[in-house]
Amino acid sequence: MESIQAIKQRFGIIGNDAGLNRAIEKAMQVAPTDISVLVTGESGVGKESIPKIIHALSHRKHGKYIAVNCGAIPEGTIDSELFGHEKGAFTGATQTRSGYFEVADNGTIFLDEVGELPLTTQVRLLRVLENGEFIKVGSSKVQKTNVRIVAATNVNMFEAIKKGKFREDLYYRLSTVEILLPPLRARKGDIHLLFRKFASDFAMKYKMPSIRLDEIATEMLTKYRWNGNIRQLRNVAEQISVLEEDRTITADTLRQYLPNTTGNLPAVIENSKSESDFSSEREILYKVLFDMKSDLNDLKKLTMELMQNGVSQEVKDENESLIQKIYGDDESEEIFHEDEVNAPVKLLPLAPEVTVMPEDKYHFAEDVEEEETLSLHDKELELIKKALERNKGKRKAAAKELGISERTLYRKIKQFDL
Ligand SMILES: Nc1ncnc2c1ncn2[C@@H]1O[C@H](COP(=O)(O)OP(=O)(O)OP(=O)(O)O)[C@@H](O)[C@H]1O
Ligand SMILES: [Mg+2]
């Protein structure tokens, strides 16, 4: 078996980091089997070389190796690309076409960005993984294929599963063995090594002397976050190689090529914060809304009772407590005399019922809230107005009729500008 160093050389992999070595060793171990492998890691960490190693060290090495970027193929054509189609399967399908799974029979398919596969394609893929069967688009004939699948993703698959974007069963089927490539910032010892290699490559390519970093610049390079990982490091090395006349690079020069990631951090934190604030704000809004609705229903019930039974002590108490509940006024010290509150009350027209169906709570919260506030307000205003009219503006009598204290009525008159 080839040594890990030989493999690195063969596939142009630079670095001696323990995490990187572990990933390569794992690829070498699983290569001779047909086990499905999922390669994970941030963007730009070098995931693409892993399936190549696996294919090259497997008994399929003389078979085809096809790399498919699942994220780059439009949803409408991906099934046809992967599994082929029959003539006439859709507009433009003038000929029967073989898909990658047919072409790569006895070979390896690398499904890059597998998290981007549409759910319908995921179902087809699951079937291939389970029994090697697939059906061309527009066909009913089941075909067989013998393909080894290596997939890669830079997204959190558990998140995707939780959001219903990726089938859990497929995830487990794809990730029998998972190979994780560590981010560049976790391979500090390799950063300068990679930079020197890229600098020398670009010096050759552009026929210029190689750039080199001074001591402080080297330190800056090593401490940087490298969110874009090795791809970003390579780009930075290329830009500096092309643009800087002075081939000794100082920290000041290097800084100009490194986006300020720490400067970006607070924005990210702020974003996530405001999002959670937003959702809790929305929850509060819903709560207020539903409290209002229940207040409104109480008011309705009260009006009905008034209409049916006149004002009983019970109703009066309920009314008072309702008003307190809505306006938060503590008037518990107010005492009513039973004989003050038994005057019959005229019937008032009821406002049309406002019902918030449970399913409505998710849309148009503002509209519903406004409607409810308005009708609650209107209804109360009307009750008070009518009571005052009937009692020729006498507040004491009107308050009595309404079953509220004079003080509350007085406050409401002011509030509603009656
Ligand atoms: N250890 C390494 N040594 C040399 N070059 C590397 C190494 N790792 C990655 N690269 C180079 O960095 C670039 C990015 O690597 P690659 O395309 O494999 O990233 P990736 O993990 O597939 O990212 P993405 O998720 O964005 O597709 C490539 O040009 C690759 O050759
Ligand atoms: Mg990639």
Task: Tag the structure with descriptive keywords.
transcription, 418 residues, five-stranded parallel beta sheet, Helicase, Ruva Protein, domain 3, 9% strand, sequence-specific DNA binding, Rossmann fold, Transcriptional regulator, sigma-54-related protein, two-stranded antiparallel ribbon, ATP binding, binds magnesium ion, binds adenosine-5'-triphosphate, alpha/beta, 11 strands
Short description:
This protein has 418 residues and is of the alpha/beta class.
Number of helices: 17
As residue ranges, the low-confidence spans are 263-280, 326-370
Cα shape: elongated
Order of neighbouring strands in the sheet with most strands: 2-5-8-1-9
What's the CATH topology label of the largest domain?
A: Rossmann fold
What's the main sheet like? 5 strands, parallel
How many domains is the backbone divided into? Answer: 3
Explained architecture:
With 418 residues, the chain is of the alpha/beta class. The protein has three domains: 179 residues, 3-Layer(aba) Sandwich (Rossmann fold), CATH 3.40.50.300; 70 residues, Helicase, Ruva Protein, domain 3, CATH 1.10.8; 132 residues, no CATH class. Helices cover 54% and strands 9% of the residues. It has 17 helices and eleven strands. A five-stranded parallel β-sheet has the order 2-5-8-1-9, with helices on one face. The protein has a two-stranded antiparallel sheet with strand order 3-4. A hairpin with a 6-residue loop joins β6 and β7. The radius of gyration is 36 Å and the shape is elongated. The N and C termini lie far apart (95 Å). About 15% of the residues have low confidence. Bound molecules: adenosine-5'-triphosphate (ATP) and magnesium ion (MG). Magnesium ion (MG) binds next to loops. This is Transcriptional regulator, sigma-54-related protein. InterPro entries: AAA+_ATPase (IPR003593), AAA_lid_NorR (IPR058031), Homeodomain-like_sf (IPR009057), HTH_Fis (IPR002197), P-loop_NTPase (IPR027417), Sigma_54_int (IPR002078), Sigma_54_int_dom_ATP-bd_1 (IPR025662), Sigma_54_int_dom_ATP-bd_2 (IPR025943). Keywords: ATP-binding, Nucleotide-binding, Transcription, Transcription regulation.
